[in-house]
Amino acid sequence: MKDSYDVVIVGGAVIGSACACYLAANPDFTGSVLVVEMDPSYARASTSLSASSIRTQFSNPINVKISQYGGEVIRNFGALMEVDGHRPSLNFHASGYLFLARTPEQVETLRENHLAQTGCGADVVLWERDELARAFPHLRVEDIELASYGRSGEGWFDNTGLMMGFRNKARALGAEFVRDRVVEIGRSGNAVTSVTLASGARVQAGTLVNASGPRAAQTARMAGLDLPVEPRKRTLFVFDCARSPEGSAAINGGRLPLMIDPTGVHCRPEGKYFLCGGVPADDRAADWDDFEPVHEEWEEICWPALAERSEAFEAVKLLRFWAGHYAFNVLDHNLILGRHPEVQNFIFANGFSGHGLQQSPATGRGVSELITYGEFRSLDLSAVGYERVVENRPFRERAVI
């Protein structure tokens, strides 16, 4: 490790690794990159504990386009991230998302979202009750008024595979990764000048990228900046069915999609089992080191909703469970990506609110362009910049799960 770098990235999970990878791969960027990660095992990283899915079914066109690019990268990941002849595979399951609506408000939201999605060219269809019943006969749909289904460009994949692909490619291209922790950020007026590490090393920084996940507010605070991002706990459950409905669909080779019930409970196949989760009844900030699963969510939220939705989910056996953290943007549940308006060499890549994996390719590309060219070139992400935080101007996304 040197004592000075053009770019220092704080956090080396999927966002930090993507930023390092895109910078190192950019032929117009000739600087040096250091990624500081306190736990390279990534045991408690949001990346590792995520359900690792991607969808184009958002309400805002920018989020749709971000995911469309993410999908393109995921589909071509092996070729893009090849290192020394090794092409990583993400084992992408292109089985789509299925949103179910039963109230007039939910129906209106699906219809409005659909206009935004198809306006961007997303392959999403709306189904009435009879069409839904034919496609997925295991579901009880008497109360469903409308469904939204992604026919392509959506599914799930290997979460750590995505992160390690970016990380390995970045290292092969010259980016440096160090196991350490940033404990202090030096400033001179309106510029970040350095980071001090827990090991005692002090590193000069031309530009600092905050990619600290749920701890992003801590990193910002070291530079005297405020960031409305906090850890929110999400518990995921894996269960087995006495009679699995996987293979029963009338479309997509019988494969089931990731279903989002009107209650907010989501469920998808996980190999021969199923993975599910829901929105906590008391969704408050968690301690940064609290990863204790909320067991009651299975009995009180997830299983009741699933058993009501399908007879196949009445006789199930819970196999395992774990909790991870969303890097939750309390302002508007959307990513914050861009420079601080005053401290110009401090760049935010934070607040993904559960969407960091699918949004990491566009984030890495955007940060690389911002540092190299001083502007976004491939996709204008200025609407999700930090300025809206200063102005208390939420950039709303209605399709948050």
From TrEMBL:
GO terms for molecular function: oxidoreductase activity. GO terms for cellular component: cytoplasm. Keywords: Membrane, Oxidoreductase, Transmembrane, Transmembrane helix. Residues 6-370 form the FAD dependent oxidoreductase domain. The chain crosses the membrane at residues 7-25. It comes from Vannielia litorea. It holds the Pfam family DAO. This is Glycine/D-amino acid oxidase. GO terms for biological process: mitochondrial respiratory chain complex I assembly.
